[in-house]
Every structure is written in structure tokens, then in C-alpha cells.
Design goal:
heterodimer; A: 532 residues; alpha+beta; six-stranded antiparallel beta sheet; 12 helices; globular; B: 373 residues; five-stranded mixed beta sheet; two-stranded antiparallel ribbon; 14 helices; disordered N terminus
Chain lengths: 532, 373
């Protein structure tokens, strides 16, 4: 955390209200995001309890597993979830625009431009918190190797159609969310945390209710009071007034409300199975429906407050103007979405359990590059972020006090003007260090020549080296003028791709050698009993 | 004639006074012992745990109840999984130990399963020690001890610990087995949970080493424990060997330092008592008499955390915002001091922390100013 953010947190403590740590919105927000508020069963891996899901704030779809340990009910839940999520994804997959991508021609080995499709927009999944992102990954992993009866008639517990497909999509979203600056799958607490500093620790910020309480406290209350209430206040029955954002539930809820309700449901189901005639069965079916309804209401009562909070968070974020580079990063998300769409259409197998060496190295390289890109772009888009970089000595802002025309000593002399900038910042400039400023959205490079006078004077002499056109005289507006206020960075504005990695079939022996023919992944071993 | 008061009995007496009259000591379990390693700098936690004070009850009495609880679903699932792992005389469990830790030994067929039941923790401890001695003597056979009980001396009083299982190998060495119900997904599990399990297992290893030291020749307690978890999304067991040497060293150091609770106790005012019967103000004062080292991480580990957080916030301590915040603020420890220094109202401008703060404040105001235009 930079000192500037720390100051913002301390100010939040004394003012009782969260303080901005960004002046623009640094993440893309879809016009029509799909919000997912999942709950899971304590102690079980991949046994969802229910979820609220949908694109309409006023009409979320409630999905519930009345007995989370029952395989059939769980499959029914996942099939329902697929019914909501997959049509949403498809609505973006079909609208495309023409785009170009450079590919290596397999015959000549040259880079050539290829005309490809790019989805005009991409879907966006929003979950309440980081734990929700992990749960999406887990759901994806639990589903993508399942076999349907159609794929394999012998499979012991066939999954409903589309469930493996949903698993592949959720896996892709989970994987993409690990790329810095991506927005396909977004955790609300993380985005809010990027834009506001609350008066509590980042650990406590993972509670969406408490975090929102700091950002927008109710009238007449400080953020601290409201956050404390959101965190701890319980009703007369001992239940939290603001249920945790999940997917984990509060143990008091599990023990006092949910467990008895599930027990009643189990009893009603046993009774129905033991019914001896139609009349009795009708009665008992009524009892079963009532028991199921009770569990549905319980799950709704625990997810609806979080659902509303996610939308409140969206309102707050939408009020911020979008950063200039957000659109560009979203285009990368669109490429990512389009790429996975194409892999699914091409009939490629689900993502393997473990990546081969080249794929893994590529993923890591992408994340590193995107991290650097994100840091540079956020600073360029937002003076408050740039302030942090200036404080760290990675950028400086100041006024141009002198410009002296000079030329390079080559046969065709090019303009190399010397610009003197006065700054109060303290950049860590080495000899001939490169610095960059933004000129019409493109980086213009300069070289640090030296200081004019003492260090206290803050006079830096820079030699501009590019973006001045081909002629002897620099193009109009390409050289700073006396009196200009400029901001130079020591970091590059655009990221270059790293060294090209070999194709998977050329993996060197140091990295395990070529992965060979990909054996199809076997489905997971399953619990034999019908109920886990 | 009363026996002479030794150092140990004097301390025990003093700790009983701290706990309050007629309040039974809360036994330390492996989880609590392992948690000591999480925040070693906290004297409050050290003395309360050392004296056997029930911190959950204390937190209730202070008016800041802890929020810990376990869901019965997790409990049921955990018990069912452990029963499954130990079914058929622990055949699957022993197979996993053989495969993961000792593949060169003879396969575990017809392993011994001594009965460890006895009356009271002392009785069970003695019974376990006896069974361990017998099993170690019987070379060439495998022995599975299901829920043995071992004692560990913690600051002069014994803590009784109950590992899920201990296996005696044919070569006479001992292995701690930890059965957990979180999944091992594609061969890896949640690192935070594995870490907690390793710290807990390290406490058992330490306790077993004390038992082993009393045997001649002393058998080897293996420093690689077996962590058994459900495989992927099923309830089928899978296992992984976990090296706990580091956790063992840390815990051992912490336990040695626990003797320092005597010093903490000596520094307390006469008549200090943590009995939950006392009125809240008196209790608050008693708790306040021992310094705490609150950080947000405590919320996940200590029953008293909400109380300490409230006090820490009231005192304006910057660590209540996270330990990392403190690192860049030099000698400034309260919110007011930091903000006053940043505004230029106090602090020595030659202090690098103060100078950095002022620059940060100036840059922040400047950046926020451009937003308003």
C-alpha cells in the first residue's frame, strides 16, 4: 500500500467516511452484467446450497438445493444455473465484428494479418467477493469433466446436458480473472477496494456490507458505526442482520435455521416415498413442497441482502467516469471471450487439470505483462494514481522553464531539443535514463541529460528524442514550450511482448519435453453412495 | 507440614488466582497451541492462554462476543470422512502411510489396533504411552493408534492432546496422521488450511517426541506427517506427506517462551483477576493491564479479537488498519499523530517518515484538486 493510500485510510478513520483512491473508474462495467450470489454448504467441496442469479436487479432468479448432499438435486441446480448463464453468454457470442489478428503463416513462417471475428461485446459476471471468484472456479472444475449420457452411455452418474459446457465456461472466467485488469469475472469488494479506502483494514474490506457502510454510510451514522453493525449486529433469534456475502454461510444460520429445515425436508421425502396410496401421496407431496419452500425462503433471505448490495456497489462505481484506457483492456477481455467461444465451437476438449509447460509459461508471462500494463495505464488515466508513482520517484511533474533547440550529429541532423523542467518531485533518475510523456495518447521519449544547478533547485534537463516528425524542423506541437505543465514517467507506457515461447510440441527436455498426444482427461472419481 | 513452594507450584497458584476462584482451567488443545505461533508478540493472549482462561466466555463478559462457531454440516462431514478413512481396521489409512511415507517396508497386513480406552485424560495418556512402547518393541509389524492421548508440558501444566491417529512403522518409528475434510483438488489443497494442519501436527510431533525420549532406545518421530483429505469432489481419501520441521521448530520456540508468562504475571497489579463473574469495568481494567498486539489477522484466530480491535481503534492505533501500514510510518503510531504530521502541525521535518508523509499529503491534495476542476 502506498503512503498516499495509507493517508486516505487514516482520513477515512477521522472523517468517518471512505476516501477516494481513484478519480476515475479503472474497471470496465457492462451495461448488462450477470450478477451471481452463490452459497455453499459448509464442509463440502462443490456442494452448492443455492444462488441468486440474473441480469435484472428487480427479478433475480433463485436457485436452491434443498438437500445439498443429494447428487440428483445438485445436478438439477447446476442444470438450472446453466439455463440462466449459457443463454446469457450466447447472446454475446453471436454478435461479432470483423477484426484483424497477426498469425504466423504455417508455410512461409512469416507474420501475416488474418481476418477474424471478434465479439462486439463480452459478458460480465459479477460476484460479491474474492471468495465468490474462487467458488466460480471450483464450480467450473467440478463440472467440466462430468460426462453426459450422450457422451458416454456407460457413465455411472450422467450429468445433465450443458453442465460440462457451463463448467468449461466458468473455468475460463475463473482463469481470466487472474489476469490483472481483466473484467470478465469481477469481485465487487475488489473493485470497490480499488476505488475507495475505508477506515478499516483490507482484510475487513472483504465483508461487502461493512465496506459499503464506509463508502456510503446511512444518514446520521459514521462509516465505523455502520460497518460494525453490518459485521456483527444480530436479531433477537441470534441471526446476523447483514448475512455474509458468501459463499460460506454463518454457522449460527446453519445450526439454528438451515439444519432443522433440511431435516424436515428429509423426513417429508422419506414419508412421501413410503406413501401407500395416491391420496396419502398427495398429502405428503404437499408437506414436501412446503418443506422445500421453507428452505427456498431461507436461502433467499441470506442471498437477497447481498444481491442488493452488489447492485448498490455497481451504482457507486457507475457514477465514476471511466478511465481512458479501460476500453482498451476490455477489448482484450473480448478477445479472450471470443477465443474461448471458438475453442468450444471447434470441439476442443475441456481445459486440462494441469497446463503443459508452454501454456503455463505463457499464462504467467501474460499476467506479468498485463500487470505492468495495468500499472502504467492506471497512472496515465488518473492523477491520483500518478501521484503515487511520483511519490515513489517513478514519475515527475513540473513546468517547462527553458527550451533550447539542438540537433543530432548525424549526416541528416534530426531535432533533439533540450528541455529544462522545474519539479518539486524527486525522481530516481540515473545517467541517460529514459523518460516518457504522453503526446496525443502516444508516448514521447526523452533522455535525462543532467541537472541544472543544485538538487534542491529541481531543474532537470531532458533531451527529446522522438515523435517530432521526419523533417529537420520538428512538427508543430511536438516539442514542449516554455510554461507547459508536463508529467514524465520513468516507466514505459506500452508493454512489449516478451520473448516468444516455443510451440508445445517443441518444449525442451528441461521443461519435461513435448507433452505428446493429449490423453483425454478422465472424469473425477465419484462417491459411490447416492448421498455424499 | 506443607510441601515447600517450588517455582512451579507458585506459578500455578498465581495463574489459578488470575483465573478466579472456582473457575476450572480451560485445557489447551493443539489448535490453541498452534495459534500461539500466529501472534507471538501478544502478551495478553500468552497470559490468558497460559492461565487457562476461557477467552470466549471472557469476550462475552466484556461485551464483545467472539464470532467463532462451527457449522454442524462441516462437523458431520468431518466425522463421516474420518470414520470412512479408519474403516476396516484402518486398512486404507495404513495403505496410504505405507505408500506415501514408507514404501520400502512390508505392506501393512494384519496391523495391530490396540485398545486405548481408559478413564480420564491421565489414564488415557498412560495407556497410549504403554501401547506405543509395546508397538515399538514389536519390530516388523504395523500398529495403528486410533485417537491416542498424549500430554505436553505447557508452562508447567500438562496439556492433553488427541491426534487423529499415530502409526508405528515396522522399523519402530512413529508418524502423526492428520485427517481433514477439506478437499485435495488435483493434488493440491488450500495453502492456508494445509498450513494450519501442519502447525497442529507439529504440536503432536513435539508431544510424541517427549514420550519417545522416555523410551530406551528412543524411537524416531518422523517429521513428515501424513495429511489425509478427500480426493477432488468425492469422499474417497487421498493423502500427502507434509514436512513439518519448520512448524515444529517455531512451535517449540513459542512453547519455550511461554515460561515468560511468569514475568507477565509478576508485572500485573495485585489482585488482577479474569473471572467472567466480575463486572465488565473491572474485567476491562484487568484485561487492559496486559498489553496486546492487535492486528486485523487476530480476527480469524483469537476469541478476544473484537474487544482488542475496539480498544485499538479507540486508542487510534494505526495497526488496526493492518500491520503493513505501520511499516512506512516510522515512529508515528496513532492516527492523529500521522495526520498532524502530514498537515505539518507536528513532527520533525528532518524525520524521513514525516517528510515522506508531507510530500504524500501534498501530492494527494494536488491530485484530488485537479479532479474538482
Amino acid at each position: 500500500m502506498s503512503l498516499i493510500t495509507t493517508l486516505a485510510r487514516l482520513e477515512a478513520v477521522t472523517t468517518g467516511r471512505a476516501q477516494p483512491t481513484a478519480t476515475v473508474r479503472h474497471r470496465h462495467l457492462s451495461e448488462r452484467p450477470l450478477v451471481l450470489v452463490p452459497l455453499t454448504t459448509a464442509g463440502e467441496a462443490g456442494a452448492p446450497l443455492g444462488a441468486l442469479v440474473g441480469t435484472d436487479r428487480e427479478a433475480p432468479r433463485l436457485l436452491v438445493v434443498a438437500q445439498p448432499r443429494d447428487r440428483e438435486l445438485r445436478f438439477a441446480f447446476l442444470a438450472e444455473l446453466a439455463d440462466v448463464v449459457l443463454p446469457y453468454l450466447d447472446s454475446y457470442a453471436d454478435v461479432v465484428e470483423a477484426a484483424e489478428r497477426s498469425e504466423t503463416d504455417p508455410e512461409t513462417g512469416k507474420r501475416v494479418k488474418v481476418e477474424v471475428e471478434l465479439c462486439a461485446d463480452a459478458p460480465q459476471l459479477i460476484v460479491p467477493s474474492r471468495a465468490g471468484v474462487d467458488f466460480v472456479r471450483l464450480l467450473g472444475r467440478s463440472m467440466r469433466f462430468r460426462r453426459t449420457a450422450e457422451q458416454d452411455p456407460e457413465t455411472p452418474y450422467p450429468a445433465p446436458a450443458r453442465v460440462p459446457l457451463l463448467g468449461r465456461w466458468l473455468t475460463h472466467f475463473g482463469e481470466r480473472s487472474r489476469v490483472p485488469g481483466s473484467s470478465l469475472l469481477t469481485a465487487m469488494t475488489e473493485v470497490l477496494g480499488r476505488h475507495w479506502a475505508t477506515g478499516q483494514s483490507s482484510l475487513e474490506d472483504q465483508h461487502l456490507g461493512a465496506q459499503l457502510a464506509w463508502i456510503a454510510p446511512p444518514p446520521g451514522e459514521t462509516g465505523a458505526q455502520a460497518a460494525l453493525r453490518a459485521e456483527l449486529a444480530r436479531d433477537a433469534a441470534g441471526q446476523l442482520r447483514c448475512p455474509p456475502a458468501g459463499p460460506a454461510t454463518d454457522p449460527a444460520f446453519d445450526n439454528k435455521l438451515l439444519a432443522p429445515a433440511i431435516e424436515r425436508y428429509d423426513r417429508a421425502r422419506t414419508a412421501l416415498a413410503a406413501a401407500e396410496d395416491g391420496l396419502q401421496a398427495d398429502d405428503r407431496l404437499g408437506a414436501l413442497t412446503a418443506a422445500e419452500q421453507e428452505i427456498r425462503e431461507l436461502v433467499r433471505s441470506r442471498t437477497l441482502p447481498t444481491w442488493n448490495k452488489v447492485w448498490e456497489g455497481l451504482d457507486l462505481l457507475r457514477a465514476l467516469p471511466e478511465g481512458a484506457h479501460v476500453e482498451e483492456r476490455w477489448t482484450r477481455d473480448r478477445w479472450s471471450f471470443t477465443g474461448h467461444r471458438d475453442r468450444v465451437v471447434a470441439g476442443e476438449p475441456p481445459q486440462p487439470r494441469r497446463d503443459d509447460a508452454v501454456t503455463a509459461a505463457n499464462k504467467l508471462a501474460t499476467r506479468e505483462r498485463e500487470q505492468a500494463r495495468l500499472e502504467a495505464q492506471e497512472a496515465l488515466d488518473d492523477p491520483l494514481v500518478m501521484a503515487g508513482r511520483r511519490l515513489a520517484g517513478e514519475a515527475f511533474a513540473g513546468e517547462v522553464v527553458d527550451v533550447v533547440m539542438a540537433y543530432s550529429e548525424s549526416k541528416r541532423p534530426s531535432p533533439r531539443p533540450l528541455v529544462t523542467v522545474r519539479t518539486d518531485d524527486r525522481p530516481h533518475l540515473g545517467e541517460r535514463a529514459k523518460v516518457f510523456r504522453s503526446l496525443g495518447g502516444k508516448p514521447q521519449a526523452a533522455e535525462f541529460v543532467g541537472r541544472d544547478g543544485e538538487e534542491e533547485d529541481g531543474l532537470l534537463v531532458l533531451r527529446i528524442v522522438d515523435k517530432m516528425g521526419r523533417g529537420k524542423e520538428p512538427e508543430v506541437g511536438s516539442v514542449p514550450e516554455k510554461g507547459d505543465r508536463l508529467c514524465f514517467t520513468l516507466f514505459e507506457h506500452e508493454q512489449r511482448g516478451g520473448a516468444k515461447l516455443p510451440d508445445p510440441e517443441d518444449t525442451p527436455w528441461t521443461h519435461g519435453g513435448p507433452p505428446g498426444e493429449q490423453a483425454p482427461e478422465v472424469p473425477d472419481s465419484v462417491t459411490q453412495e447416492d448421498v455424499l | 507440614m506443607p510441601p515447600p513452594r517450588t517455582r512451579g507450584t507458585a506459578l500455578r497458584q498465581r495463574l489459578a488466582e488470575l483465573r478466579g476462584p472456582d473457575v476450572a482451567a480451560k485445557a489447551l488443545d493443539a489448535r490453541a497451541l498452534a495459534a500461539l505461533a500466529a501472534n507471538p508478540g501478544c502478551e495478553r493472549r500468552a497470559i490468558l492462554d497460559g492461565a487457562g482462561v476461557d477467552k470466549a466466555t471472557l469476550a462475552d463478559a466484556l461485551g464483545s462476543p467472539s464470532a467463532f462457531g462451527q457449522s454442524q454440516f462441516a462437523l458431520t462431514r468431518g466425522n463421516a470422512f474420518e470414520a470412512k478413512v479408519k474403516a476396516d481396521g484402518g486398512a486404507e489409512l495404513l495403505r496410504l502411510v505405507h505408500e506415501r511415507l514408507d514404501p520400502r517396508a512390508a505392506p501393512p497386513v494384519g496391523a495391530a489396533l490396540p485398545d486405548l480406552s481408559a478413564i480420564g485424560p491421565e489414564g488415557r495418556t498412560a495407556r497410549t504411552a504403554l501401547a506405543l512402547r509395546e508397538a515399538t518393541g514389536a519390530t516388523g509389524t504395523w500398529t495403528l493408534l486410533d485417537h491416542p492421548m498424549i500430554a505436553l508440558d505447557v508452562a508447567g501444566s500438562p496439556a492433553f492432546l488427541e491426534p487423529d491417529a499415530v502409526v508405528v512403522h515396522p522399523d519402530g518409528s512413529w508418524t502423526v496422521v492428520e485427517i481433514k475434510s477439506f478437499p485435495m483438488l488435483d493434488g493440491s489443497a488450500d495453502p492456508a488450511k494445509v498450513g494450519a494442519a501442519a502447525r497442529q501436527a507439529a504440536v503432536y510431533v513435539l508431544a510424541l517426541e517427549a514420550v519417545a525420549a522416555r523410551l530406551d532406545p528412543a524411537p524416531r518421530v518422523r517429521h513428515r506427517v501424513l495429511l489425509v483429505c478427500p480426493k477432488d469432489f468425492s469422499n474417497l481419501p487421498t493423502a500427502s506427506a507434509v514436512d513439518v520441521r519448520k512448524q515444529r521448530a517455531v512451535t517449540s520456540r513459542q512453547l519455550a517462551r511461554l515460561t515468560r508468562i511468569e514475568d507477565i504475571a509478576d508485572a500485573l497489579p495485585e489482585g488482577t483477576c479474569f473471572s467472567p463473574e466480575l463486572p465488565a469495568e473491572q474485567l476491562t481494567a484487568a484485561v487492559e493491564a496486559v498489553p496486546a498486539a492487535y492486528a486485523p489477522e487476530c480476527l480469524a484466530a483469537c476469541e478476544l479479537a473484537f474487544h482488542c480491535r475496539q480498544r485499538s481503534r479507540a486508542a487510534g492505533a494505526v495497526t488496526s488498519l493492518g500491520r503493513s501500514v505501520r511499516a512506512e510510518l516510522g515512529g508515528l503510531t496513532t492516527v492523529e499523530d500521522v495526520l498532524a504530521a502530514a498537515r505539518g502541525e507536528s513532527g520533525d521535518p528532518r524525520d524521513p517518515a514525516v517528510a515522506a508523509l508531507r510530500r504524500a499529503a501534498r501530492l494527494r491534495t494536488e491530485a484530488l484538486g485537479t479532479m474538482c476542476h
